[in-house]
Specification:
Structural class: mainly alpha
Order of helices and strands: EHEHHEHHHHEHEHHHHH
Helix content: 40-55%
Strand content: 5-15%
Largest sheet: 3 strands, parallel
Number of strands: 5
Radius of gyration: 21 Å
Number of helices: 13
Strand order of the largest sheet: 1-2-3
Bound molecules: adenosine-5'-triphosphate, L-tryptophanamide
Length: about 325
């Protein structure tokens, strides 16, 4: 039996992925690659929707690829590729933009969030149409599942709406995908501001990076914000800081929250933070080390990406050809 397809992606917008990306998305990606025919994309076209430095983008694209592999993406099983290596992404995005309403695009909350600080007038049109490019990324691969964090739910909903609309106007063309959002780690919170999601754009002290050295990781956990009552229990509303630490601890060790509460209750926050920092180093250090090894051989890494792009292009071109035909373009000779 053939496996269903799966697609997901991340932006190469920083030199390191953070624990939110790792626990919220990557761990899932690695565990789904046996049951699915998976495509994992580094979305560099999305990374230029905000101003970028070309040399940094190039470096961060390879750094992101190395971290995917180091975190468990097996490139024999899954296609790992760079979005700009597959022209069909931009080509399908254009077609989908032409069936998306202005109002529909304007309702995307990520665009609203990202333009809140500086206003819409200084945002690019690319940032506005970002979710439609994301829909193209997905629909080209006819995936059943799209594993992402909670913050991406609305974009996957838009993708589904566009697939259904296209299918009903032009005939069955796209598989209508489902978001695969796992419950436990779908939202990892900032260590300094535990009611906000951990993000590159948050407080650097609250952001734990895969490429951070051990001492930095330990320091960030030890200075995590908690509260003053000293009690260790899981309560997101009343105790967001402690609850985030408990869920991170659980995610990185596989131990249940109850088990952890049982061990640390009454012990104060210091012991919990110290042991959690140690568990985090144990989880992250091997990934960082492997990523650094991979980065030392850029030619080998580029060859892996070329192979991934060839596999991706084959599937993407077939879908695009169908779409071009359905909308009424004559075939190029
Ligand atoms: P930014 O830092 O600009 O908010 P980001 O950190 O969300 O960006 P993306 O490239 O947008 O990074 O996200 C990559 C993947 O990681 C997505 O699937 C997203 O849902 C997931 N993700 C990001 N942050 C978290 C988080 N704090 N908790 C769980 N998943 C997350
Ligand atoms: N917007 C996504 C990144 C992304 C993506 C995709 C995720 C671009 N294209 C396709 C899943 C499938 C984000 O994580 N911020």
């Amino acid at each position: 039996m053939t496996k269903p397809n799966l697609l997901s992606g991340m932006q190469p917008s920083a030199g390191s992925l953070h624990l939110g990306n790792y626990l919220g998305a990557l761990v899932n990606w690695a565990s789904m690659q046996d049951a699915y025919n998976a495509f994992y994309c580094i979305v560099d076209l999305h990374a230029i929707t905000v101003p970028q430095d070309p040399a940094e983008l190039r470096a961060n694209t390879r750094r992101t690829a190395a971290q995917y592999i180091a975190a468990g993406i097996d490139t024999d099983k899954s296609a790992l590729f760079v979005q700009s290596h597959v022209p069909a992404h931009a080509q399908l995005a254009w077609v989908l933009q032409c069936i998306t309403g202005m109002g529909e695009a304007g309702r995307m909350t990520q665009f609203k969030d990202k333009t809140q600080k500086n206003g819409v007038d200084s945002a690019s049109v690319g940032l506005y149409t970002y979710p439609i490019l994301q829909a193209a990324d997905i629909l080209l691969y006819q995936p059943k599942a799209v594993p992402v964090g909670e913050d991406q739910r609305q974009h996957i909903e838009l993708t589904r709406d566009l697939a259904i609309r296209f299918n009903s106007r032009f005939g069955d063309t796209f598989v209508v995908p489902e978001a695969a959002i796992q419950k436990e780690n779908a939202k990892i919170y900032d260590l300094q501001n535990p009611t906000a999601k951990m993000s590159k754009s948050g407080d650097p002290k609250g952001l734990v990076n895969i490429m951070d050295d051990n001492a930095t990781i330990v320091k960030k956990f030890k200075s995590a914000v908690t509260d003053t009552d000293g009690e260790i229990r899981f309560d997101r509303e009343a105790k967001p800081g402690v609850s985030n630490l408990l869920s991170l601890f659980s995610a990185m060790t596989g131990r249940s929250i109850e088990d952890l509460v049982g061990q640390y209750a009454g012990g104060g926050y210091g012991a919990l933070k110290g042991d959690l920092a140690e568990a985090a180093v144990a989880a992250i250090e091997p990934i960082r080390t492997r990523a650094e090894e991979l980065l030392a051989d850029a030619a080998q890494l580029d060859a892996i990406l070329a192979d991934g792009a060839a596999r991706a292009n084959e599937v993407a071109e077939a879908t695009l050809a169908k779409v071009y035909d359905r909308v009424g373009f004559i075939a190029a000779r």
